[in-house]
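Morning!

As promised:
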Amino acid sequence: MVGARGGSVLGKGLLGIYLSVLVLLPVAALLAKSGTGGTSQFWREISNPEAVAAIKLTLIISAIVVLINAIFGTIIAWVLVRDEFPGKRIVNALIDLPFALPTIVAGVVLLALYGKGSPVGIDVAFTRAAIVLALLFVTLPFVVRSVQPVLHELDVSMEEAAESLGAGPLTVLRRIVLPSLAPAIISGVALSFARAVGEFGSLVLITGNLPFKTEVGSVYVFGQIQNENLPAAAAVSVVLLVAALVVLAALTLLSRWRSKHVL
Amino acid sequence: MAIEARHVSKRFGTFTALDDVSVTVDDGALMALLGPSGSGKSTLLRIIAGLETPDEGEVVIGGEQVTDTPARSRGVGFVFQHYAPFKHMTVHDNVAFGLSVRRRPKAEIEARVKELLGLVRLDGLAERYPSQLSGGQLQRMALARALAVQPKVLLLDEPFGALDAQVRGELREWLRRLHEEIHVTTIFVTHDQEEAMEVAEQIVVMNKGRIEQTGTPRDLYESPSNEFVMSFIGPVNRIGDAYVRPHDVEILAHDDGSATEALIKRVVHLGFEVRVELTLPDGRDISAQVTRANAAELELHEGQILPVRLPRPRVFAA
Amino acid sequence: MSSSASGSIALSSGSTGRAAPRGAPSADGAARARKLGVRTIALGYLALLLLAPVAMIFYRTFEHGLTPVWNAVSEPNAQHAFWLSLEIVAIAVPLNTVFGIGMALLLERGRFKGKALLGLLIDLPFAISPVVIGLALVLAYGKTGWLGDWLAENGIQVIFSVPGMVIATAIVSLPFVARETIPVLRELGTDAEQAASTLGASGWQTFWRITLPGIRWGVVYGVVLTTARALGEFGAVSIVSGRIEGETQTLPLYVQARFENFDITGAYTAAVVLALLAFATLVAMNLLTRRTRAETIA
């Protein structure tokens, strides 16, 4: 920036303090706590059967949810870009609802329809299906919102060219459309995964938090904090954090690789 | 006020944009910095304005050392290539900006804005937003904005680059007349030799971060000091190490003994002038420029063999 | 002269629009049926996952008329939770707005080492579970945490009180303003700022009069997202607040407490209030997107 050198030094200092208070210091404290007892204690904490079950459940269910998201997210994005129907603008706006709606409300809302006394006769409360449902709800926008702009920019004439060369609709989809959308789908999937692994608010009420059955990683951490077992909470927290970071880092590397090789 | 850049060098990473460049612009002059892209002409202009800092060298405006003075205190008017309009402000507020950040009295600002909008012929458009103006109007608004603060010098970066041919021609002439009227020392950057020759009194030809030659348009055309200037200013035929302007190639009706024969490959009619593409006996292609009347008189047509005279070819030391 | 100028410019800029007749000519019966099928799947999925549950809670809340809703709303603890939520938002959002703009300027305009690291640091809250953020805050600022003794000596209570809840809320909503502002700042470019400086504007004058008006809609969009996220934060706040009814209970925490105490009307009413705020957010987002789009086209 031009000018205001003094002001910008002051600004940078304040910014540094702000980020330290908010992010650096707490994350450092977390890492320190998980490492206080050395690697053996860290290993003991995360190999506790209940912790293992929670982490495994988190990763498996997140993977399932992300897969469903990839399919339905792409379909929804396709309909929002290529289809025309009355009320499309409203549907498009509603996609962001899970981002705007507090997660605890998401849980309450899902229970109202798919919980005890469900008017449609479906009761998934306290089951693993409930976790899938809640995670699908909160991660819905990611794939849709990352595929939508790419699909919008995708040249229809490419598909028409393929059709004119004799390709059927499925071939066009498989050979032309999906390869172009793949990076966007993967990016949405990675963001969904990171979010699903850490999700808490929408799961608190709907899953019942039954150990070995519906207790996911974040809920396990919460339980350990309540039991004042902070080393265990910190150890599993680090595992969740690493899982999310690995996926996001892979995404960054992938997009960098792609921009180098495709453009 | 006179502008001086002394021994200015600037590097961006490994790229040398300016290599020990010195320029002097006299008070009240209208000078063009001419060169191909990457020649360093815009960088030099931005260093004079204070938008870039030179790695070495100094800038003196009106006898005052300004190398370390920030852009806002240099008293320069700068017109950006894409005009840099303040999109959220009206034309009036754009032009008034420089005065209003100086906290001038309102009456003074109003009077000055009115005067300038008249000068650039935008009266009546004061309440428009930049998005509602054409390219030529934006250009003139940017000029009015720069002139509002009564700058000591006026700097324009490719002022006509983004306009279509017709508007460009009109604005060139208008800029020249404006300069005669207000007489502020002006430097403009361009890659278009025709534009530089038409508008400027003095031209600095730049290439690869260095100055190739400085002079009046006529000097540069008639006595270029090297082959770069010769080939950058106006069309040129290269015959071995020699250079000949197409209009210096004479097509004769009869051989008078001093001519060689040439085969006409193509005759291109460009309005007043006619370009004739020729092949010499040694197989080299050159082009000649003749007037329409001349071409008609000689009844030039493809496949014809005619005597051609190539006077005083120019040779530059390597 | 000016008339010929504007005429030719308008002509050249008018031909940029792309008119692609999307699949119109080849729409035979099979293609139409396929399209209809895909549409049904997409809309059906959205209806079952999003619309029906949200509609259901509105129905359930108001099915016995307005009296129970009114009673639930006027419950003192509900009132307290509502105002506490607003209080936290009123502190955390302005902080994140100011620092978010600062971070965006630094990341987009600054030249310094460790820029990539700063970018990563700002995005980190998106990758961390709110529960983990809560835990990290307890470990840093709690009684047994790193700064616990120092804070206690100075009589500052962070955990189990409003400061901790503000910090937790600020962390989870940290990235929005910067992330929404950076692309707008890039789009804006530096030409106008440089023009302002050649006209004599100081750094502050340039920021207030040129940069900020240029990025305002991006900032406002970021603020809307920040507010929505801050208002709804549950996990991190749940841990650092101690969830004391009538004291450190925000509206989302109140929803959970009411639900677990089988006060379904109380829980639903508070949930509906939050849902209405979410809908307001959606409307604001849409108006702003249209506004920025209109401005970039113009």
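The two ends of chain A are 31 Å apart (CA to CA).

Hope this helps with the figure draft.
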